[in-house]
Amino acid sequence: MAxxxxxxxxxxxxxxxxxxxxxxxxDAAAAAAAEEEGDDDDLKSLxxxxxxxxxxxxxxxxxxxxxxxxxxxxxxxxxxxxEFWPLDGKDIEAIADLTGELGIEVAQFTAWGFxxxxxxxxxxxxxxxxxxxxxQAARTLRCRKATVVAGDDVPGxxxxxxxxxxxxxxxxxxxxxxxxxxxxxLEPMNIRxxxxxxxxxxxxxxxxxxEEVGSSHVKINWDLYHMQITEGDLCGHLREGFxxxxxxxxxxADHPGRHEPGTGEIHYNRVLKQAxxxxxxxxVGLECRPRDGEEAAARRVAAADVx
Length: 307
Known about the structure:
It contains 13 helices and eight strands.
């Protein structure tokens, strides 16, 4: 069973694949057809998509391989960046050396997870200490963004109170982040499928928190998978997020299944085009589990960037 994020924290595809998908054939068959025609140069070009810069989440891709080998595999498929979850257990110097050697970036990592929650004031000193360590790691990694998580529900505390505590924590964190030029990206989750009992879900509350903090270095990790499950209307809400100037980073996975684009209900060609048309040029994190292997997933990702 694949390790979930909560457990850890407790261009285009080939013409054959695109044509097959456009005819309504099964996407796995389309990916297989593309693979039959592929060669080494083809594989190296998969991640060089024309519009969107994708960052492979190496906690969810190649999970049976050593961590550094996962980064090599992402680069071998042509992806320009990777992302990962906590710093704990990672050789930061080795990651920095390898990404430099490969000429790819670390798009973001997780600086603060689910527990202990940022939504309790007693945890704020620990949060700020962790942030300072993350700023040093980010400098080594040449990384400009780090995810922070609000926390699970606190018994006896209202959502309004918990969100007020998150705002207080981020207001204290903002000067530190600004000093080190590290953008903190607050991630709303979904409470229907993956994170029942989490205190922050949906774009509206996340926008309000970031607006209240009022820092150029505190924005939203706008995970389209979580947003689809929570509220839908991805393109409409994306527009609102850009109008509020609170989107700092995008992530994706299809739904249901949390696999790559093309395996579920989300029309990612339309959604990614909307982000592009709205002016987004940052990385889009592939926080998804490859359904039929990483190469097939890379082909589907590339196909989602066609319009």
